[in-house]
Amino acid sequence: MMENVKEAFDREKKIMDEISSLSEDLKNSKSEAERRIISSQITSLKDILKKAGQKVIDSVEKVSVTKPLVEESVAAQTKTPTPPVIAPMVQPVKATDNSRMKKEKTTALEKLSLKRMKKKEVKIIKKKEKKPSIYVKMASKMFYNTSMRLLNKGRFDMLRRDLIKANLEFVPANYISVMFFTTIVSFVVGIFATIFFLFFSLVASPPFIVTVEESLGQRFLMVFWIAFAIPALVFLFAYFYPAMEKKSIEGRINQELPFATIHMSSISNSLIEPSKMFGIILATGEYPFLEREFTKLLNEVNIYGYDLVTALRNMAFNSPSRRLADLYNGLATTINSGGDLPEFFDKRAQTLLFEHRLEREKQSKAAETFMDIYISVVIAAPMILMLLLMMMRISGLGISLSTNMITLVMVLGVSVMNIIFLAFLQLKQPAEA
Known about the structure:
- It is a single chain.
- With 433 residues, the protein is an all-alpha fold.
- It contains 15 helices and 2 strands.
- Among the domains are: 2-72 and 81-119; 134-246, no CATH class; 368-433.
- The two termini are 73 Å apart.
């Protein structure tokens, strides 16, 4: 009997281990269907555990540790007392019902599911904390207070708005500090460049760097502007960079928005809660630039605790895309007024698709125009310019350049024009829909 109790305890222990393992799998599971399977397995194992526990209790109750001694009566004829007979410590118990035990065992399908859950590896995602670089720390240490004073006076409001809309990983005060610090560094570089060109100049033939022949005052008037031009260009680029980044992101979002709206229109027909739609769009992973905006929207609801309508209004104000802002505002108005969401998304998808087709037609026309300009400027114009320079060199009229200088001018000119065209086309290139 004691062996049966021990086996029952071992069986309970195994069941508890299985329940513990499945509970860990349930915590790490992301799929809803997988969670339902694991939950049903845990419920089934709990029922089996209850039955096994009841059987242990019944078996323990039948175990007798001690029993009083029993004396048999002495025969009247002999009148001799017989020694007492000690009863067995444990009374025999009927054999357990094996058919019931078999019914309580897990089925083959449950065993297969448990085996699959055990084999599945749990991916541990380690979050890396991003720390500011030494350059940013130095800039913030030097100019943070100055940047905060300027921001409080409203001097860089447009830059602050562009930073938020461009999703740059900078606090406005830190970015302005970096902008000032970079300008100071570029001013030092400009001073060194001015000093260099004050005594030396670049030529097309070896040794490429030669000493100047003009007087020091004359040369200073020719090159002093370099010390101011370099920091001015750096400051202007740093100031307008967030606006350019925001413009680029806006174009990418506008390319993805019509198809995402069609997707949301089909989801809204299932009468799902509106905030869940954005989570479903995020789960697809098909809209990388809209994914950032929808993540910020869900953070407004889940982390900051705003209701969906307020979160939509906030995101419309901070959205880099005007069309996405209109979608947010329209959705907020529709939810407030109790309108028909499927109809709203259907109409908005039609409008966005129409605008998308118009943009594609404009881009194709612009590509044809750029091709004509490229042929005229980069191919025909350099050939005509080279002929004119050669004619002026032979005739001695106007500017007379050497053959090496003409070659250098033509190569540099064509290279610079190609770089400009490539950069312009890269900026104008539409995102893949």
